[in-house]
Amino acid sequence: MTAIELEQLRNACATARDKAMVEFLYSTGCRVTEIVNINKSDVNFETKEVVLFGKGNKHRTSYLNARAELALKNYLDSRDDNNDALFVSDRHPHNRLKKNAIEKRIGQLGEIAQIERKIFPHLIRHTTATNGLNRGMKVEEVQKMLGHENISTTMIYAKVAENTVKLNHTKCIV
Questions:
Q1: Nearest CA to 77 among 24, 16, 18?
Q2: pLDDT score, position 114
Q3: pLDDT one digit per residue (tens) for the chain, 174 residues
Q4: Residue 68 and residue 23 in contact, taking contact as beta carbons nearer than 8 Å
Q5: Backbone phi, psi, residue 155, to 5°
Q6: Contact at 8 Å (CB) between 64 and 50?
Q7: Dihedral angle at the C-alpha atoms of 75, 102, 26, 74, nearest 10 degrees?
Q8: Separation of alpha carbons 31 and 129, rounded Å
Q9: Alpha helix segments (H runs only) across 38-161
């Protein structure tokens, strides 16, 4: 996603849950199945760490940026249920959100935002990887954050902008 598309998506969020979900997906770079499985107890606001349980039945740690932390706290404060799940349905009995519901809602937010392409959770994951690399994260750090075993998988996700390559070439190849 472009920076404008990401801001449009953020602006389309009308509820605390929508905002928390978008910010959480972006900050952690998590897979949609990981956001389905996460519980409130997997988030440590003191350390800004999130334990994700994902592909290959493996645990990994990701992190909350300030936007995600604030949005998540606001969302959790607004809830009146006892469900352990981090993200639940808006309606009683507030069940854990499933994969299809999350994908559908992110797609709807993309439409509300009038983004001219389909928006889905995995695209947000790609955006996290690309932005991390374009802003100076090492590819090995992005690999670890995304939970990839093979670095070539990370490189598929990461669309390093040509202008970033050119800028770094000018800066480094002297």
A1: 16
A2: 98
A3: 999 999 999 999 999 999 999 999 999 999 999 999 999 999 999 999 999 997 777 889 999 999 999 999 999 999 999 999 999 999 999 999 999 999 999 999 999 999 999 999 999 999 999 899 888 888 899 999 998 888 888 877 666 666 676 777 677 776
A4: yes
A5: -70, -30
A6: yes
A7: 0
A8: 12
A9: 66-78, 99-112, 121-134, 139-146, 151-157
Question: What are the φ and ψ backbone dihedral angles of 118, each rounded to 5 degrees?
Answer: -70, 130
Beta-carbon contacts of residue 66 (< 8 Å; ≥ 6 apart):
none
28 contacts 50 by C-beta, under 8 angstroms: yes
Residue 53 to residue 155: CA distance in whole angstroms: 22
- Residue 139 CA from chain centroid, whole number: 18
SS3 16: helix
Q: pTM of the full predicted structure?
A: 0.90
Residues with a known catalytic role: 31, 55, 122, 125, 148, 157
Asked, as a colleague might, if the bond just before 121 is cis with ω within 30 of 0, I would say no
> Of 120, 87, 126, 89, which is closest to residue 106 (Cα–Cα)?
120
The residue type of 156 is I
